[in-house]
Amino acid sequence: MIRHRAKHLDTCHHLEVVFYIASIVKIQCLHNINFTIERHISESIILTMILPKTKALIPTILVFVATAALHPQRSLAADEDPLQDFYPAQVQASDFASDSLKKPRNTSNALGVAVTPANVLTFGGLNTQGVSAAGIDFAPHGLNPPHVHPRETEILLLAKGTLLVGFVTSTPDNKLFAQTIQAGELFIFPRGLVHFQLNVGYGAALAFCAFNSQNPGTSQVAKALFASTPPIDDAVLEKALQLNAANVQRLRSLISKT
Fold first, then answer.
1. Among 247, 255, 244, CA closest to 221
2. 89 pLDDT band (50/70/90 cuts)?
3. Residue 45 lies in a domain
4. From which domain of life does this come (predicted)?
């Protein structure tokens, strides 16, 4: 009876160790920048106190570690929660104000559009706040071409004009959701989906966007395919898009100028 109880307690100890290690790996996946110190402390504990007693459970531990490492997405839906009110601590009121979206931008380009970002790279007060914004100026018939924001959901407020806006769902459905909106109306672009805005009104248009990330990132579909550095091999584009070599080169030349 005593031997059975001791074995039971030893098993419980091993299970606690497994879950502890899995939780440490999970923390590292979610907070790989902020938990450097904890990582070193945890590694020391594991190497000197835990692993020598858990050799028999190494396969089980590895399974838990792999599971924890491969499933962090649920907690990474947006930027990490800040650990203080703002960063850096030594700031003044002007650091939280910006007039970057106040002035209209030049839309004299091939697409007839000018996007002005107000993210952490251009507006320091946004650091650790998990939000950002942008202003989009459209010339008549101007287009903000198909693109994605890999790290955020976007909400657009049309301040002036008329826009055709839309997004396409992920494969295999590839369903288009598009609508014409007027000044004062809103439209949502879900995170990571290809979307666009086209000025279909008679004059200029102006829109403002908000994002739930301090640095949402942008990847234009056409530029990613035809203007990457170094360029994607022609054979890939020819096969994927069913184009001949001449058309691939023509598109490279056109899109690199937009």
1. 255
2. confident
3. yes
4. Eukaryota
